[in-house]
Amino acid sequence: xxxxxxxxxxxxxxxxxxxxxxxxxxxxxxxxxxxxxxxxxxxxxxxxxxxxxxxxxxxxxxxxxxxxxxxxxxxxxxxxx
Length: 81
Description:
This protein has one domain (about 5-25, about 35-80). About 70% of the residues lie in helices and about 0% in strands. It is built from 4 helices and no strands. The chain is elongated, with a radius of gyration of 18 Å. The model has no long low-confidence stretch (mean pLDDT about 80).
C-alpha cells in the first residue's frame, strides 16, 4: 500500500465524519406542505432568504455542499489508486 492511499483514506474517513456532523447540525426543513401549494413556499424573496448565506445555517449548507464535492473527488482518486 502506498503512502498516498493511506493518507487519502484518512482524509476520506475524517471528511465523512465531518460531513455527517455538518448535516446533523442543520435545522430540519419542512417539505413545504400546503404553503407550497398555495404559493407561499418560496422564501427567496424575503429579507431572511436574501441574507441566508450570512447565517450559521447558510454556512452549514455551504460546508455540506463543498464537503460532498471534496469527498466525491477523494473517492474517485481512491478508486484510481
